[in-house]
Amino acid sequence: MRRSAYFLPTLKENPSEAQIVSHRLMLRAGMIRQSSAGIYSWLPMGFRVLKKIEQIVREEQNRAGAQELLMPTIQPAELWKESGRYEDYGKEMLRIVDRHDRGMLYGPTNEEQITAIFRECVKSYRELPQILYHIQWKFRDEVRPRFGVMRGREFLMKDAYSFDLDAAGARRSYQRMFVSYMRTFARMGLKAIPMRADTGPIGGDLSHEFQILAETGESAVFIDRALLATDWAGREVDYSSDLSPLVDELTGHYAATDEKHDPAMEKTLGDRLLSARGIEVGHIFYFGTKYSKPMNAAVPGPDGTPVLVEMGSYGIGVSRLVGAIIEASHDDAGIIWPEPVAPFRVGLINLKPGDAKCDEACATLYRALADDVLYDDRDERAGVKFAEMDLIGLPWQVVVGPKGIAGGTVELKRRGAAGGREEMTLDAALAKLASTRPGRS
Ligand code: ATP
Ligand code: MG
């Protein structure tokens, strides 16, 4: 993409409404525009990141054996009356009346709807287990929408639902999702820590929130520092094996959100206890027959008697992740995208558009890098171009200037703390970019 043609309305000044760095940077980098409180339009640059995150989530759900479908955003009120949540959900639910006076609502989540699909379609225990998911917009009329896309009213969520014949099966489905969440967040360059979370009346140990540590996080969290040293990235998983040992290993260190934390246990940790703030990027939950019972989602079991299905639900905040990744990865100059979610992998800066040699070198690079490159071909001061490239945070920058090109070289820069810049030939730069390209894990 040529910068001169790209729809990228960046801002020079810090927007005063933004209280945290990710919100500030998303507005400044031309990723989003607010429509009304907690409701945003995604501009091309932001939309590319959102789609990349969504795709990683999708690939890891599929790998774990979940199947994608798509349910509507608008749901009938009757379904929620069946489960009893129509009254319980309160003011967070946006209720709508259609022209026939039928009660509708904009879905804040989809347990009822998926349970209705399940009970209409599944006729035998032989069709179990199933894990179904969709990636769809949700609406929750949050009391205090804030921090940009981190606590929006309209937001994109991946929500999966598991159906099993018994509690042991439900535990296996839960473990699949648990492990797929570890892979999903690691692929985005995030260290997400699974923490014991409230299970409500169900009890047991099958509820975890996945939290990213960040000062601006809304949750208080308590963890064993040993967790910071563990490295999950790149681990292979065989989903057909028993996942219990792996889940036990991943939950072996103390980590709890404030509803679940245990001061007595924390005392024994001494200096190893870290009390910090976290951003919740995912939540997985086993809830047994909470919905199947009132909604009568049962299948005939092996001996013909109906069995209520055991269910769980598994959410990931896809749009919240865009902000969370920026909270975890930025510096004073701007965003530092982890490669797998970067809107473009490379920013190409032509320091002297109109100079035949610079233009030619840039044209070669632009062709070779194809869809991965944002090419700043504008007739702007170098300082302006550098500042903008740093702000939008593409992982690599290639700078082409008349002095270098006269000697046959360009400059290759790595954005971020690992940093580094090198003068090299154009071919060497392309070779290096090709060899460092992250494999599709
Ligand atoms: P929170 O405690 O942050 O309100 P929640 O417990 O209501 O979250 P879930 O119902 O478990 O959230 O939804 C699954 C995921 O959706 C959350 O882990 C979070 O990442 C994301 N999410 C929830 N509410 C919002 C929101 N208002 N804006 C953006 N993302 C959200
Ligand atoms: Mg909430």
Break the fold down into its secondary structure elements and pairings.
Blueprint: H1 21-28, E1 32-36, E2 39-42, H2 44-63, E3 67-68, E4 74-76, H3 77-83, H4 85-88, E5 94-97, E6 103-106, H5 111-121, E7 130-139, E8 154-164, H6 167-187, E9 192-196, E10 207-213, E11 219-224, H7 226-229, H8 244-250, E12 255-257, H9 263-269, E13 273-288, E14 298-300, E15 306-308, E16 310-317, H10 318-328, E17 330-331, E18 334-335, E19 346-350, H11 356-369, E20 373-376, H12 382-392, E21 396-400, H13 402-406, E22 409-414, E23 421-425, H14 426-435
Parallel strand pairs: 3-7, 19-20, 19-21
Antiparallel strand pairs: 1-2, 4-6, 5-6, 7-8, 8-16, 9-10, 10-13, 11-12, 11-13, 13-16, 14-15, 17-18, 21-22, 22-23
Helix pairs in contact: 1-10, 2-6, 2-10
Bound molecules: adenosine-5'-triphosphate (ATP) and magnesium ion.
Residues 109, 140, 142, 151-152, 155, 157, 280-283, 315, 317, 319-320 line the site of adenosine-5'-triphosphate.
Task: Tell me what you see in this structure.
There is one protein chain. The chain has 441 residues and is of the alpha+beta class. It is 32% helix and 28% strand. The protein contains 14 helices and 23 strands. It has helices spanning 21-28, 44-63, 77-83, 85-88, 111-121, 167-187, 226-229, 244-250, 263-269, 318-328, 356-369, 382-392, 402-406, 426-435; strands at residues 32-36, 39-42, 67-68, 74-76, 94-97, 103-106, 130-139, 154-164, 192-196, 207-213, 219-224, 255-257, 273-288, 298-300, 306-308, 310-317, 330-331, 334-335, 346-350, 373-376, 396-400, 409-414, 421-425. Strands 3, 7, 8, 9, 10, 11, 12, 13 and 16 form a nine-stranded mixed β-sheet that branches. A hairpin with a 6-residue loop joins strand 22 and strand 23 (421-425). The longest helix is centred in the middle third of the chain and has 21 residues, at 167-187. The radius of gyration is 24 Å and the shape is globular. The mean pLDDT is 95. Adenosine-5'-triphosphate binds at residues 109, 140, 142, 151-152, 155, 157, 280-283, 315, 317, 319-320.
